[in-house]
Design brief:
3 helices; 11% helix; disordered C terminus; five-stranded mixed β-sheet; rod-shaped; four-stranded antiparallel β-sheet; mainly beta
């Protein structure tokens, strides 16, 4: 029987981590806690506290103050790849279409502008959004009581609890959880170009003849994909070409 118990103790001793050196019965030094990560039960950890498990000693051990589903550790994990990139700063637009009829001049310039939709916008900087979560290790916490009852149950409350063999703060791992956390935002992202319609964008559609040639009568120059009549747009804008280079 003694040989079998010693063999069982050897198996337990090789399956847990951070096992303290055996404290003698007369020592008054509290044991260091055992934080097992190999799947031992609380009772198996407490049995390991009692090493060497001498079957003639008469000592017994049992978990005390056990709490289950305790978060033993929590680590914040950030994804390596952003799930979203959002442009920041003042964009530049391109791919204009759907020109409206809000023809106007900017200041005293003879050029004509109007509203339009842009198919793309290029931002000089961007925010990068990364998902995050807490990786939690879950388990049980407990103490270990070690005692001997010399006279047995019939001799009253004469059990011996050697101070040096009692322990607290032991734990075993039972599982893990991933708990979502707020996104991490990196504000140092580079330029980004996005597609879509960007309404109420003012765009230059016509350069006046004064900006094209010094010879008369001169011609309007359409810009940014505008295909309508610049002369009509200028008239609708309520302005005159500022020079004698008005087109025929």
């Amino acid at each position: 029987m003694k040989r079998a118990l010693l063999a069982a103790t050897a198996i337990l001793s090789s399956s847990f981590v951070a096992v303290p050196a055996y404290a003698g019965i007369n020592d008054n030094i509290p044991l260091n806690p055992i934080n097992d990560t190999t799947g031992l039960t609380p009772q198996q950890v407490c049995d390991a506290v009692l090493r060497p498990n001498d079957d003639h000693s008469g000592f017994q051990t049992a978990p005390t103050d056990e709490e289950d589903n305790v978060v033993l550790s929590s680590t914040l994990v950030t994804d390596s790849t952003p799930w979203q990139q959002v442009g920041t700063g003042t964009p530049t637009y391109s791919g204009y279409g759907n020109f409206d009829s809000t023809y106007h001049h900017n200041g005293s310039s003879p050029n004509v502008w109007t509203g339009a939709d842009a198919n793309t916008a290029t931002y000089p900087t961007s925010d990068l959004y990364f998902h995050q979560h807490y990786h939690q290790i879950v388990g049980s916490t407990f103490g270990c009581a070690v005692w001997k009852d010399p006279g047995g149950a019939g001799h009253g409350p004469d059990a011996i609890y050697p101070p040096g063999l009692q322990s607290t703060g032991n734990s075993t791992v039972t599982g893990s959880n991933d708990v979502p956390a707020d996104d991490y935002i990196d504000h140092s992202g580079g330029p980004v170009t996005t597609g879509g319609s960007y309404h109420d964008t003012n765009v230059l559609i016509c350069i006046s003849p004064n900006n094209v040639t010094k010879g008369k009568p001169g011609t309007w120059t359409q810009k940014n994909g505008f295909t309508g009549s610049c002369s009509a747009a200028n008239t609708a804008a309520g302005g005159q070409v500022i020079s004698g280079n008005a087109p025929n």
